[in-house]
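Page 37, continued from 36.
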């Protein structure tokens, strides 16, 4: 969702800098607004589809990890929403090489083929 609609956050900030605007004062707020918007979009979607690829998830032995804080956040949001709906309980920077173990999040989702998803959407 985020890359399709918002593109890369730093590209937007660079565009703002071209107009001689100091982005250091708005960068954190901008990141929070994007994160909240991402959560709103995920909450409104009837399905959450995570496309696992070499660019999104790395296999590290028993763990599957991502270096993207945004992918981690997307999975965390979707996991929280699915946990809430099932139980009815309310239970860094992109360029840094911080890894996040997402195995727990991925295990909570049902695996579905693209064909089956298409059938469910069209039925």
């Amino acid at each position: 969702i985020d890359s399709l609609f918002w593109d890369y956050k730093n590209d937007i900030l660079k565009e703002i800098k071209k107009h001689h605007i100091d982005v250091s004062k708005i960068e954190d707020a901008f990141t929070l607004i994007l994160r909240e918007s991402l959560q709103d979009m995920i909450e409104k979607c009837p399905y959450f589809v995570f496309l696992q690829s070499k660019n999104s998830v790395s296999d590290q032995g028993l763990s599957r990890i991502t270096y993207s804080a945004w992918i981690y956040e997307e999975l965390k949001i979707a996991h929280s929403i699915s946990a809430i709906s099932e139980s009815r309980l309310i239970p860094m920077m992109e360029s840094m090489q911080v890894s996040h173990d997402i195995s727990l999040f991925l295990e909570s989702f049902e695996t579905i083929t693209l064909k089956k998803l298409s059938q469910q959407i069209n039925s």
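The longest helix spans residues 69-87. Flag for discussion at group meeting. The helical segments are 2-5, 9-17, 27-44, 69-87, 103-107, 114-122.
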